[in-house]
């Protein structure tokens, strides 16, 4: 399994939304249960700003090699242990000569 080792800029946000099934009854009552065994979902919109051409090439080559299909291991900032993610979309902006910005959305996935 490939591991993404590049460090994103500070300020990376994490969005967490557990998968929950809800059944609503009369008078406002409801019952909630986790949807499946892996209910924790998360996404991280990451930014890699003002990176030189060498680092840009490495980041883009890594993402393009997986092409939004193959998952890879990544450790979230301040997250401790690695998780499995997939990157289905990214953008590259050349800022100046030898300075580039890449934005990417990492989404947590579960695989055997």
Spatial sequence of strands, sheet with the most strands: 1-4-7-6-5
Oligomer: single chain
**Helical/strand content category:** mainly beta
Q: What average pLDDT do the residues reach? A: 93
Please provide the count of β strands: 7
Q: What's the story with the biggest beta sheet?
A: 5 strands, antiparallel
Number of domain units:
1
Question: Helicity, in percent?
Answer: 10-25%
**Which sequence of SSEs, written as H and E, runs from N to C?**
EEEEHEEE
What would you call the shape? elongated
Q: What is Rg?
A: 18 Å
Q: How far apart lie the N and C ends? A: 12 Å
Number of helices: 1
Instruction: Tell me the fraction of residues in β-strands, as a range.
Output: 35-45%
Stretches where pLDDT is under 50 for at least 5 consecutive residues are none
Can you describe this structure?
It contains one helix and seven strands. The chain is mainly β. The protein has a five-stranded antiparallel beta sheet, covered by helices on one side. The chain has a two-stranded antiparallel sheet with strand order 2-3. It has one domain (15-108). The longest helix is centred in the middle third of the chain and has 14 residues, at 53-66. The mean pLDDT is 93. The chain is elongated, with a radius of gyration of 18 Å. Helices cover 12% and strands 44% of the residues. The protein has one helix at residues 53-66, and strands spanning 15-16, 20-24, 30-34, 42-51, 72-74, 83-96, 99-108.
């Amino acid at each position: 399994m490939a591991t993404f080792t590049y460090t994103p800029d500070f300020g990376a946000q994490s969005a967490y939304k557990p998968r929950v099934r809800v059944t609503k009854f009369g008078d406002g009552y409801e019952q909630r249960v986790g949807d499946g065994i892996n209910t924790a979902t998360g996404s991280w919109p990451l930014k890699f700003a003002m990176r030189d051409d060498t680092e840009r090439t490495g980041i883009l080559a890594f993402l393009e090699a997986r092409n939004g299909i193959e998952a890879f291991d990544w450790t979230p900032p301040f997250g401790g242990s690695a998780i499995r993610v997939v990157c289905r979309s990214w953008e590259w902006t050349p800022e100046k000569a030898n300075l580039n910005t890449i934005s990417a959305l990492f989404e947590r996935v579960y695989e055997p």
